[in-house]
Design goal:
253 residues; mainly alpha; two-stranded antiparallel ribbon; 10 helices; 2% strand; globular; membrane; MFS_trans_sf; Glycerol-3-phosphate transporter 1
């Protein structure tokens, strides 16, 4: 082993049957991981940047929605302030149901990463439909907005849960709560950076056109989903392996 490798020895040396979704990794000492050492742990960088793009998309759409609706001609006219507030509140209410739906699907399938990435991919056409057809009528504006809220807002919290759970079961971190806390903090705060640059990035793009803002949102959602690909593949392999074992047992019976 190279002397520069990060080494962690878990307190619990019991075997871990969970799939290595983080790309394999070195064992590390049971101590507080330094900032650069934590970045060197396999899986931290892609997970952190996934949260970066997820929060960038969610926060941009959430905070820019009232301004966008109030300056958009919908059904041939500008909406009143009351209607704008009602539509914006509808987006927030739909977010609650999106969280329940994402959690239910995740628990039912026992596949957090697959659920989260699927939601991010589904948010892309929802964003496109909202921007392209949201001006036709009030219904055409509300329907894709609700779909966008369902798919967009809660999955980034689900992604954070999936990441923490898989890092917690990874052999290199098991039993080392201090190292896990450092890694979790890095991932969460990287997402906060994505939310923080939102006003500057959105301001620069909106000065050109709103089309640029929506293109940015769709590209960021796509990148967030793609960054979960490795974890998704690992979950699919586990599902196939489990199904294969079940089929073999049934055939023996």
């Amino acid at each position: 082993m190279d002397k520069n490798d990060v080494v962690l020895k878990p307190r619990n040396t019991a075997g871990n049957d969970e799939p290595d979704v983080n790309g394999g990794g070195e064992e590390i000492r049971d101590q507080v991981a330094g900032f650069m050492e934590a970045w060197g742990i396999p899986g931290v960088a892609p997970f952190a940047f996934c949260i970066f793009f997820s929060k960038l998309v969610a926060y941009t759409f959430l905070y820019c929605l009232p301004f966008y609706i109030s300056h958009k001609v919908i059904g041939g006219e500008y909406l009143s302030d009351l209607t704008v507030r009602m539509l914006s509140s509808l987006f927030d209410v739909s977010e609650v149901f999106g969280g329940i739906l994402a959690g239910h699907i995740s628990d039912h399938l026992d596949a957090r990463a697959i659920t989260a990435s699927s939601f991010m991919y589904c948010a892309i056409p929802a964003l496109f439909l909202y921007h392209a057809y949201g001006s036709i009528s009030l219904f055409c504006n509300a329907a894709p907005m609700i779909a966008t809220s369902l798919f967009l807002n809660r999955p980034y919290a689900l992604i954070t849960t999936a990441i923490s759970a898989n890092l917690g079961t990874h052999g290199s971190l098991k039993g080392n709560s201090r190292a896990l806390a450092t890694v979790t903090g890095i991932i969460d705060e990287t997402g906060s950076v994505g939310a923080a640059i939102r006003p500057h990035l959105t301001g620069c793009l909106s000065s050109r056109s709103l089309d640029s803002v929506f293109i940015m949102l769709m590209v960021a959602a796509l990148i967030a989903g793609l960054l979960l690909t490795k974890l998704v593949i690992a979950e699919v392999k586990v599902k196939l392996r489990t199904r294969s074992s079940s089929s073999l047992e049934e055939s023996l019976i």
